[in-house]
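Bumping with the actual sequence this time:
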Amino acid sequence: MIIWRGWGILAAGYVALTGIFGIGIPWSVGGASLKWIMLPVALGMAVACWFTGRYFNVVKPRRVVEQELPALRQQMEASVAAGTFRLANQPPPTSLEQARGQAEGYLQFISGQHHGRNWHTMFFLPMQYWAFLIAAWGVALPLLVH
């Protein structure tokens, strides 16, 4: 069973740190009277988890595609001009225009909005969405503990 992919394990770290700094340490010092410390700790960890997840799952893949796309475009254009362009599992193009169209379609697919996103997950949930669970835990715990 796969629990996490990529850097998704960091979400478990944020959950653990929330528990340690929001429950473990305050409750060992002052007991349940310090239950409201959980709220700012959880919200801070949720913000950190959100931005870390957004970086790994959205910002970084977009940056990689933007950096590599010009070189890939040149390589495709050279392959089309030489007449050697062919996509895997596709019939070979019958004309230069068809090869250009297939190459352009492939480049558009590569630079698409959803390509390479949300790869860093824990329990199949993208890392940035763990922020909502951490925040909900931080709001609910002080309200539920008497």
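The tokens above came from a reply further down the thread. The chain has one domain: 4-144.
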